[in-house]
Design a protein that fits this description.
Helices cover 31% and strands 22% of the residues. It has 13 helices and 15 strands. It has helices spanning 6-12, 115-119, 129-151, 184-188, 209-219, 255-276, 278-287, 292-301, 309-318, 335-345, 396-405, 414-421, 434-442, and strands at 18-31, 34-40, 48-53, 71-80, 88-99, 155-156, 162-163, 203-204, 222-229, 242-251, 305-308, 350-353, 375-380, 384-391, 427-433. The strands form three sheets. An eight-stranded mixed beta sheet has the order 6-9-10-15-14-13-12-11. A five-stranded mixed barrel has the order 1-2-3-5-4. It has a two-stranded antiparallel sheet with strand order 7-8. Strand 4 and strand 5 (88-99) form a beta hairpin. Helix 3 (129-151) packs across helix 6 and helix 3 packs across helix 7 (278-287). The longest helix has 23 residues, at 129-151. The chain starts with 5 loop residues before the first helix and ends in a 20-residue tail after the last helix. The structure holds 4-amino-1,4-dioxobutan-2-aminium adenosine-5'-monophosphate and magnesium ion. Residues 167-168, 207, 209, 230, 232, 239-240, 243, 245, 247, 385-390, 429-431, 433, 435-436 line the site of 4-amino-1,4-dioxobutan-2-aminium adenosine-5'-monophosphate.
C-alpha cells in the first residue's frame, strides 16, 4: 500500500480502511496494555493519534523506546475515536522505525521552546508546530502571489540578482567580487574591490524594479518576485539583509491605480490564507498573537485609510504624543510614527502618499508642487511599512534633473533614460516585503521567524 499524508487522512476520514502513514513521533504515552503515539508528518498542524497494542511485533523492543523526533512508518486501520478533540485514530498493525532520536541529546522536547532558542537550531526548528505552520503559510502565499497576478494577465519576469545599479540609491549594496579575497588583496595590497566583477562594479540587487520597468514598457503589466539584499546595519525585528520582495510594475498606470492594486492585492492574500490555511491561522491566534484573527478579518471588511504625508505630519505633531524620533515636515516617518498612525489613529491599514522628494529615490514622479513625489507606503498595524511604491518619473527632462540632483551619472543610467527617450509612458508599481506580509498574517513579532534561514547583521550561521 502507498502511504498517505496525515492531512488527507484527517480530511477524508476513511473509517475502517487500511492506511499507512510516514512521519515523526511527537509524543508517546503508555497505558496498561497499549501505547498512544502522536505522529506528525508536516502536512498539517494536527497530529494523528495512533494506538499501538502490546501484542504488536517489537512492542517491547521498539515501540516502548519511541521518543520525540523518531521517524516511523505505521500501517493499520482507521477507526472512529472515542477521545475528545479528535474524530479518528489509527489502530496500528505494524510500526517500523526508520530513525531514532536520542532523547538525551535531541534538542526538541514536548514542551514549548522559545523562538530565541529555536533560532539557534535552524536545522531542527521547522519540526515545531509554529515554524512548520509558518513554512506552509509561506508556501501557500507564494502561490497566491503568482495566482493574483497571473489571473490578471501580468507576466512574471525574472530580474537579475547581480546588478550594476543601486535602485534605491541608499548605498546599501553588497558588492560582488570575482576575486579570491584570501589571496589576491593580500599579495597586491589592494583594499578596493568595488570594480571586481570581471572588471566592473557589481552588487546584489536591492530591488528588481528598474529591470521590471524595462519589461513593463515592452509587455505591459509585469511582476517580479525574488530575493533582494540590503546591507543596512539595522538589527530590528522587521529588517533582514536578505529578504523576498514582490514587485509589480504596471504600464499606463498612475499613483491612484497603483494604490488600488496594492490594496486589493493585500486583501486577496489575507483572504487566501484564511481560506487555505485555517488551521495554521488558528494556531497562530492561539499561541502567537491573540488579536490575529480579529485583525485579519478587519482588513477584509474596511477600505484602507488614505492620507498624504503632509497630513500625517500634521497629525503626528498635534497629537500630543512623545516620540523617540522627532517629527517635522521633511523627515522620514519612523516605525513608531507609522505604527501610531495605523494602530491608534486609524486602527486599520493606512496608505500614506506624496512624500517629500528630498527623502525619496530618483525614479519617483515629481508632483506639480515640485516638492513632493507620487509615492505611497502602505502601513499595517503591528508592523508599519509593508509596501512601498510610486508612480515613476516618465518625463525625460525631469528624470535627468533628478539623477543630477542625486549625483547619479547619466552614463550609468543611460538605458533607464532611453526608456523615457523612446515611447515613454506613465507607469507605476510597488514592492511588497514578503516577510513583513508573513509577519502580518502570522502575528510573529520577529522577522527571523518567518524566513527559513534569516540573514541579519548579527548572524547567518546556517
Ligand atoms: O520601500 P522599499 O525600499 O521599495 C523598493 O525597493 C521599491 N523599489 C519597490 C518598488 O516600487 N518596486 O522596499 C519595499 C518593501 C518595504 O515596504 C518593506 O516591506 C520591504 O520591502 N523591505 C524589507 N523587508 C525586510 N528587510 C528589509 N531590510 C527590508 N527593506 C525593505
Ligand atoms: Mg520604503
Amino acid at each position: 500500500s502507498h502511504y498517505r499524508r496525515i492531512r488527507q487522512i484527517l480530511k477524508e476520514q476513511p473509517l475502517g480502511q487500511a492506511v499507512e502513514i510516514k512521519g515523526w513521533i511527537r509524543t508517546r504515552r503508555d497505558s496498561k496494555g497499549f501505547s498512544f503515539l502522536e505522529v506528525n508528518d508536516g502536512s498539517c498542524v494536527a497530529n494523528i493519534q495512533v494506538i499501538a497494542e502490546e501484542n504488536l511485533p517489537r512492542y517491547q523492543e521498539d515501540i516502548l523506546r519511541l521518543t520525540t523526533g523518531c521517524s516511523v512508518r505505521i500501517s493499520g486501520q482507521l477507526a472512529a475515536s472515542p477521545a475528545k478533540g479528535q474524530d479518528v485514530e489509527l489502530k496500528a498493525a505494524e510500526v517500523e522505525v526508520y530513525g531514532w532520536a536520542d532523547p538525551e541529546t535531541y534538542p526538541l522536547q514536548k514542551k514549548r521552546h522559545s523562538f530565541e532558542f529555536l533560532r539557534e537550531i535552524g536545522h531542527l526548528r521547522p519540526r515545531t508546530n509554529s515554524l512548520g505552520a509558518v513554512a506552509r503559510v509561506r508556501s501557500a502565499l507564494s502561490f497566491a502571489v503568482h495566482r493574483f497576478f497571473q489571473e490578471q494577465g501580468f507576466q512574471y519576469i525574472h530580474t537579475p540578482i547581480i546588478t550594476t545599479s543601486d535602485c534605491e540609491g541608499a548605498g546599501e549594496m553588497f558588492t560582488v567580487t570575482t576575486l579570491d579575497l584570501n589571496n589576491v588583496p593580500r599579495k597586491e595590497g589592494r583594499t578596493d574591490f568595488s570594480e571586481d566583477f570581471f572588471g566592473r562594479q557589481a552588487s546584489l540587487t536591492v530591488s528588481g524594479q528598474l529591470e521590471a520597468e524595462i519589461y513593463c514598457l515592452a509587455l505591459g503589466n509585469v511582476y517580479t518576485f525574488g530575493p533582494t539584499f540590503r546591507a543596512e546595519n539595522s538589527n530590528t525585528s522587521r529588517h533582514l539583509a536578505e529578504f523576498w520582495m514582490v514587485e509589480p510594475e504596471m504600464a499606463f498606470c498612475d499613483l491612484a491605480q497603483d494604490m488600488e492594486v496594492a490594496e486589493s492585492f493585500i486583501k486577496y492574500l489575507v483572504q487566501y490564507v484564511l481560506e487555505h490555511c485555517p488551521e495554521e491561522i488558528e494556531l497562530f491566534n492561539n499561541f502567537v498573537d491573540k488579536g490575529l484573527k480579529g485583525r485579519l478579518a478587519a482588513v477584509l471588511e474596511q477600505d484602507f485609510a488614505r492620507i498624504t504625508y503632509t497630513e500625517a505630519i500634521e497629525r503626528l505633531t498635534t497629537c500630543g504624543k512623545k516620540f523617540n524620533f522627532p517629527v517635522s515636515w521633511g523627515a522620514d516617518l519612523q516605525s513608531e510614527h507609522e505604527r501610531y498612525l495605523c494602530e491608534e489613529v486609524f486602527k486599520r491599514p493606512l496608505i500614506v502618499s506624496d512624500y517629500p522628494k528630498a527623502i525619496k529615490p530618483f525614479y519617483m514622479r515629481v508632483n506639480d508642487d515640485d516638492t513632493t513625489v507620487a509615492a505611497m507606503d502602505i502601513l499595517v498595524p503591528g508592523i508599519g511599512e509593508i509596501i512601498g511604491g510610486s508612480q515613476r518619473e516618465e518625463r525625460y527632462d525631469q528624470l535627468l534633473g533628478r539623477l543630477e540632483e542625486q549625483g547619479l551619472s547619466r552614463e550609468d543610467y543611460g538605458w533607464y533614460l532611453d526608456l523615457r527617450r523612446y515611447g515613454t509612458a506613465p507607469h507605476a508599481g510597488f514592492g511588497l516585503g514578503f516577510e513583513r506580509l508573513i509577519q502580518f498574517v502570522s502575528g510573529m513579532a520577529n522577522i527571523r521567524e518567518v524566513i527559513p534561514f534569516p540573514r541579519t547583521p548579527g548572524s547567518a550561521s546556517l
